[in-house]
Amino acid sequence: MAYAFYDYATENKGIFEAMLWYNKYMIEEGNQVTHNTFDILFKILRKQNLSDETINHFIRTLRGFLEGYVLLVNRQAFGHPLSIQKSFDFSLNILINGVKNMEGK
How far apart are CA 87 and CA 37, in angstroms? Predict the structure, then answer.
């Protein structure tokens, strides 16, 4: 899911920026999409024996990471020659492994 969001948002920069603006003015359609996305994430993360509170924190963390990373990519703000994709993979692995370390705690 994270890769799909990343690919979509970096290939459709204008649409991504519009989505961020659009989300500021919640309407029912946007609420439903958000609700459906959270439902999917909850189903996946509940299998990790995490509390609902931990899942909510992780979803916020993931959203913040994805939106922030995409904004930096779209604005060409990464100046170092390292692979942006490798950095994205590295960061996502840290988030996923962090949640795995919290299983059942």
Answer: 25
Identify the architecture of domain 2-101 in CATH: Orthogonal Bundle (1.10)
pTM above 0.70, yes or no: yes
* Segments making up each domain of the chain, as ranges: 2-101
Give me the phi and psi of 78, to 5 degrees please: -90, 110
Query: What does the angle CA 46 – CA 35 – CA 19 come to, to the nearest 5 degrees?
Result: 125
Question: Is the pLDDT reported for residue 75 higher than 70?
Answer: yes
Residue 6 near residue 62, CB atoms below 8 Å: no
pLDDT of residue 82: 94
